[in-house]
Amino acid sequence: MRFCLALLIALSTLAQPVTWREAAPILDRNCNGCHRAGQVGPFDFTTYEAASAYAPEIARYVLGNKMPPWRAKPSPLAFSNSRSMPEQSIAKLLAWINGGSKPGTPAPLTKRHPQWNLGAPDLVASQPKEHTVSAEKTVDIQSFDISPAELGATLQDRYFDAFEFRPSNRNLLHHAVIKIGNQPIAAWAMCDNGIKLPQEVAWRIPRNTPLTVELHYFKRNLRSERDLTRLAFYFTKQRPRRTASLLEITKQDIRIPAGANLHSERTTFTIPSNLQLHAILPVFQLLAAQVRLRQKGQTDYFLWVEPFEHHLMSSYQLARPLNLANGAQIEAEAIYDNSTQNEYNPHKQLREVRFAENGLDETFRIWLTISR
After folding, report:
1. Could you count the other beta carbons within 10 Å of the beta carbon of residue 108?
2. How open is the CA angle 134-132-364, to the nearest 5 degrees?
3. Cis before residue 307, ω within 30 degrees of 0?
4. Cα dist from 83 to 2, 12, 22, 48, 62, whole Å
5. Which terminal Cβ of the chain has fewer Cβ within 10 Å, N or C?
6. Domain 123-240 indexed as CATH 2.60.120.230
7. What is the pLDDT of residues 44-54, one digit of tens each?
8. If you average pLDDT over every residue of the chain, what do you get?
9. How many whole angstroms separate alpha carbon 272 and alpha carbon 282?
10. Averaged pLDDT, 237-253
11. Which helix (H) or strand (E) element contains residue 294?
12. Is 89 helix (H, G, I), strand (E, B) or coil?
């Protein structure tokens, strides 16, 4: 409905011709975080020549509600990284395209670091060598360690409140996890431009302890592909008031019948102490169609992603922390489509699907970034 309204506005109510001067800031705010060199978007919209060449495709994807990619339904929570484009911006962008994509000189746009969305980092750690996912594999999980010396944590604890992954192959690295030993403390997904915590909240690196970085590759073709991933850290200057970590909501006994196109799996997770919620990252594969999350006893979902799209997976970062009390229960539900109606279903001959990270089965995993 809103896109029909936007198109009507674009065609009938914008009296003055819209030029690149007005269109460029809209693309800069809503699209260029992904659609520029080195990011996950396949086209660069930072120049007039590049954006105007793809103007018909931009209009088609915006009108089809496919771009910008934000599949979360309206929620009682506000998300700081929401990519929803305001109707007025949609109308003006469509008016520029429908008016012939006229040129113009825009006002100065956002100054971005040439490599890192969050600005110049304090430390950049790198995968030791380029990794190749062979033609025979779909999912490949690799890990590497970052030493206390490299982290500057040989003599004392260190804290970071933001991080950003930069794979050389944005289509290959699906998500990544930062661990201390076997315990995940932070997570990132392919459509995340960077993860940043609120003030006075940070992740702790214990003194003389390495970090383990776990990379989850998901290849969408039958060719071998290569990647070299780097990770930027942004350290705090002082000890934070709250320490961040991850809680995992998972259900490993899922059974999705062959041919089922609205199969539901549910689980309930009990909050182990008083804490604050900062971000939610659903991690699923090719059969997930919807993901829902709410506090038991409430009717509204604070996260409802529909459709869930494996190739556009991202974190949902809260604009304000949500207080969760000790003993509160979180209800999580995933709706799966294991039918031929699912264009991403990897099975030509349908079969029952269970929990496995192999690209052919499915998962049920939701990571909560919390602080205590």
Report:
1. 6
2. 75
3. yes
4. 15, 26, 19, 22, 12
5. N
6. yes
7. 888 888 888 88
8. 91
9. 20
10. 97
11. strand 288-295
12. helix
Per-residue confidence (pLDDT) for residue 163, from 0 to 100: 98
Q: Tokens 């995340």, residue?
A: 192
Q: Identify the residue whose tokens are 């996912």.
A: 133
In the chain, where are the structural domains located? 2-98, 123-240, 245-371
Q: 């997904």: which residue's tokens?
A: 189
- Beta-carbon contacts of residue 45 (< 8 Å; ≥ 6 apart): 27, 31, 32, 35, 36, 51, 54, 58
Closest CA to 72 of 345, 318, 275, 329: 318
In three state form, how does the secondary structure of 298-346 look? CCCCCEEECCCCHHHCCCEEEEEEEEECCCCEEEEEEEECCCCCCCCCC
Average pLDDT over every residue of 161-189: 96
What's the token pair of residue 158? 């260190």
Mean pLDDT, to the nearest integer, of 356-368?
95
Q: In Å, how far are 15, 70, 218 from 172, measured between CA atoms?
A: 45, 21, 6
Q: Are 26 and 90 in contact (CB under 8 A)?
A: no
Report the distance separating Cα 75 and Cα 86, nearest Å.
16
Other C-beta atoms closer than 10 Å to the C-beta of 49 total: 10
Is 245-371 the same fold as 123-240?
Answer: yes
Kindly report the number of other CB atoms within 10 A of residue 237's CB atom: 6
